[in-house]
Q: What sequence folds into this?
């Protein structure tokens, strides 16, 4: 890795040197011969610049490939032990011989393990999509069943904060949509967890969906704190600088939201966020099922 990094730095230095040579050669040409004559020095500088750029491109690709390889190794080494921990904690939590306080602690450990498991799965999908190796498996899905499943996965957190989650159905509510069920489930769970986390206790979350013009739009709106308007355009970017948001605003490292954007765009859809009067909403679109 150090060797690749050194080559990467060397390429960057060569590019900078070539740029300087090119500028100097052009300045000399203008001073000595006027703008009408291309000197040998200028030609050599241009050639050096092109070669340096190609070396830079190749080694940048090597660095990216190495980064994906290391990421895959790390996630594999974390995922397997985490699965064992989750299984053991879940089994111990269901043991009625444990005291209520012990079972409560085990419940907290299980929820934390599930959260970390979702983070790892999101990272795996991000690496897969960025590498162009992700293959979707879209098929018809009953939207109500999928939403009910997502609410079941997040109800422990919402119940603990006394947050009411409602699915509002209008005449345009689609019964069937076409998507990769596992990826879409991860998107919905991530967005619901984000809403629950930043919605005050006794607050409310509303899920709506509409089918129109061969497109399905799904919105998750909550009564939580909004986001500084300056950061709405970068809300779904990788490693967004969320620490600059105002006090009590949404915080995180941005990977889960970045995953949601990649997953939605992989389906051919779009995702956006908006502040509401007294709340916040995320809305995304998906192609309408045929």
A:
């Amino acid at each position: 890795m150090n060797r690749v990094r050194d080559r990467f730095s060397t390429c960057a230095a060569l590019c900078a040197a070539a740029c300087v040579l090119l500028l100097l050669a052009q300045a000399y040409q203008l001073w000595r011969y006027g703008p009408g004559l291309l000197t040998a020095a200028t030609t050599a500088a241009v050639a050096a610049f092109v070669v340096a750029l190609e070396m830079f491109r190749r080694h940048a690709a090597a660095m990216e490939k190495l980064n994906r390889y290391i990421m895959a190794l790390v996630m594999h080494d974390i995922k397997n032990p985490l699965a064992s921990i989750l299984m053991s904690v879940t089994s111990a939590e269901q043991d009625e011989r444990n005291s209520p306080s012990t079972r409560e602690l085990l419940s907290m450990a299980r929820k934390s393990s599930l959260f970390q498991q979702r983070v790892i799965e999101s990272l795996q999908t991000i690496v897969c999509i960025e590498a162009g190796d992700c293959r979707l498996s879209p098929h018809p899905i009953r939207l109500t069943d999928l939403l009910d499943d997502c609410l079941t996965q997040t109800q422990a957190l919402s119940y603990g904060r006394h947050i009411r989650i409602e699915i509002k159905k209008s005449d345009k509510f689609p019964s069937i949509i076409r998507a990769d069920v596992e990826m879409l489930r991860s998107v919905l769970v991530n967005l619901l967890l984000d809403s629950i986390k930043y919605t005050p206790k006794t607050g409310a979350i509303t899920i709506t969906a509409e089918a129109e013009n061969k497109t399905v739009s799904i919105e998750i709106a909550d009564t939580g704190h909004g986001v500084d308007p300056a950061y709405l355009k970068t809300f779904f970017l990788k490693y967004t600088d969320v620490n600059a948001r105002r006090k009590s605003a949404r915080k995180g490292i941005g990977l889960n939201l970045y995953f949601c954007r990649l997953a939605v765009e992989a389906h051919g859809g779009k995702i956006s966020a908006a502040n509401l009067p007294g709340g916040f909403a995320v809305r995304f679109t998906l192609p309408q099922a045929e």
